[in-house]
Design brief:
Blueprint (H helix, E strand, L loop, with lengths): L1 E9 L1 E2 L2 E7 L7 E3 L2 E3 L6 H13 L4 E13 L2 E11 L21 E8 L13 H10 L8 E5 L3
Parallel strand pairs: 1-7, 6-9
Antiparallel strand pairs: 1-5, 2-3, 3-4, 3-8, 6-7
């Protein structure tokens, strides 16, 4: 079974969230929060800051955990941790996904600041996160770990 821990980052500026679009062979394009797998020996804050830098070229500072959820599907179990990260300076630019094999087509295709009202219009994964992001953005990003259960829509 493929098991991993993924850390996604919520970065907000002027009411917009930073999202990245992926395209993988055999799948429709989709948007996610910048993030990726936790490496052995790496802390959650370190992973959040590293992944943000890799995918967006932004230096961030970990502020806390917003959500904890699980994705369970045949042959795959992923624990998803969504962290709030502050990245007050610099311009975001599309980075890379170091997990893609050299010579392969990159899956990371686009980076965009998305107004919260635009979240309804894009294919955002995981499926549950849109509603949480909208609710918590309106409430000023209350901190605290929240276990959101398991699902099948990574």
């Amino acid at each position: 079974m493929d098991f991993g821990i993924r850390v996604g980052t919520v970065v907000e500026r002027d009411g917009a969230l930073l999202l990245v679009r992926h395209e993988k062979p055999g799948h429709e394009p989709y948007w996610v929060l910048p993030g990726g797998r936790l490496e052995p020996g790496e802390t959650i804050p370190e992973c959040a800051e590293r992944e943000l830098m890799e995918e967006t070229d932004l230096e961030g500072r970990f502020l806390g955990v917003l959500y904890v959820s699980e994705f369970l599907q045949e042959g795959r179990h992923t624990v998803d941790i969504t962290a709030r990260v502050e990245a007050p300076g610099g311009e975001a630019s599309l980075g890379s996904d170091p997990e893609v094999e050299e010579g392969s087509e990159p899956t990371l295709k686009e980076l965009r600041w998305v107004e919260t009202r635009e979240l309804e219009e894009i294919p955002l994964l995981p499926g549950w996160i849109r509603e949480r992001l909208l609710k918590d953005a309106a409430r000023g990003w209350p901190a605290g770990e929240v276990y959101l259960g398991s699902g099948t829509d990574a």
